[in-house]
TrEMBL record:
Protein name per the record: Peroxiredoxin-like family protein
Lineage, top ranks: Bacteria, Pseudomonadati, Pseudomonadota, Gammaproteobacteria, Alteromonadales
Native organism: Ferrimonas gelatinilytica
Domain Thioredoxin as annotated: residue spans: 7-163
Pfam families on file: AhpC-TSA (PF00578)
Gene3D superfamilies reported for this sequence: Glutaredoxin (3.40.30.10)
Residues forming coiled coils: none
Amino acid sequence: MEKNQKLQAGAIFPHVMVTTLDGDEVTLGVPRGHCEWQLVVIYRGRHCPLCTKYLNALEGHVEALSENGIDIIAVTADRRDQVEEHLSRLTVSFPIAYGLTEEQMETLGLYISLPRSEEETDHNFPEPGLFVVNEEGHLHVVDISNNPFVRPELESLVKGLAWIRDPENHYPIRGTWQDAESTLLYR
């Protein structure tokens, strides 16, 4: 994949292995337990107060997401010791994975930033990304930002995912139209 190429809605989610704080090697997009879908939240790191706030707010939606068959994992490029330090400001029950590499960030189509100073952090880091992977391994929802100020509003996201997961709604993956000559939607 070329640098800065973004993942396409409906595409197979790429195979990315990460390590959780529990020491488990996991593949992003593969849900745990009874869940069939997975919400993958990429965050900048411990240096970002907005990431801390977002992850803590996400904890308030764990039950609703689980009831809709959606597992959660958060991922950062921080080292294990940095994530362990960050835990003092986090109140989350979902797994956190660390050590996301620049190659993995590029594979996920994330924007990558350089630290502004050593006080901020000591490594390049991903800007926020949010991916919802369905039971077939396809990217059902994608949100990639180039800064920490723009992320999906969690209550709307959770309600929207409940709508999508309701089999009565037959809601397809959106944003997959690519060829005007091969698809006529409305006349």
